[in-house]
Amino acid sequence: MKRALILLASLSSLTVAAYAFDASATWGEQCAKCHGKDGKGDTKMGKKLSIKDYSDATAQAAFTDDEAFKAIKEGTKDKTGKVRMKAVEGMSDADIKAMVTYFRTLKK
Predict the structure, then answer these.
(1) CATH number of the domain to which 99 belongs
(2) When you count CB atoms within 10 A of the terminal residue's CB, does the N or C end of the chain come out lower?
(3) pLDDT grade, residue 106 (50/70/90)?
C-alpha cells in the first residue's frame, strides 16, 4: 500500500511538471493580434480599437495588476457596454497571474 501511494504521488508530480504555462506563447497566440507582440498596439486591430501603447510605462501605470487580471479573466467593455476585449478562456488564475507578470515586462 505504501508503495502504491508513493507511485501515485510520483505520477501526480510528473503530471504537474509536464504542464508549464508559457505566458509568452499565450501572448503571441491570444493577445498579439490586437496588442502587438511588443505591446504597442500597432496592429490593424490595435489601431481600429485605439489600443494604448502598453510598452509605455505611463500607460501601464494607469492600472493595477488586479485590474489587468480582471480584464483578462472577464474581458472589457466600452462605455456603451460593447465588448472591447473578450475574456481569455481556459486559463487558471495562476495562468492569468503569469500573463499579468509577462505583460508588465513589455514596458520599456
Answers:
(1) 1.10.760.10
(2) N
(3) very high
> Does residue 85 contact residue 71 with C-beta atoms inside 8 Å?
yes
Q: What is the residue range of 36's domain?
A: 21-104
pLDDT band at 6 (very low <50, low <70, confident <90, very high): low
Long-range contacts of 72-78 (CB under 8 A, 24+ apart): 72/96, 72/99, 72/100
Write out the three cell numbers for 43.
Answer: 496592429
Q: How far is CA 67 from CA 6, 12, 45, in A?
A: 42, 33, 22
Answer for the pair 98, 23: CB distance below 8 angstroms, yes or no.
Answer: yes
| Confidence class for position 1, pLDDT limits 50, 70, 90 | low
What single-letter amino acid sits at 94?
A
Number of domain units in the chain:
1
Distance (Å, rounded) from C-alpha 23 to C-alpha 31? Answer: 10
Tell me the C-alpha distance between 49 and 13, whole Å.
43
CA distance 66 to 72: 10
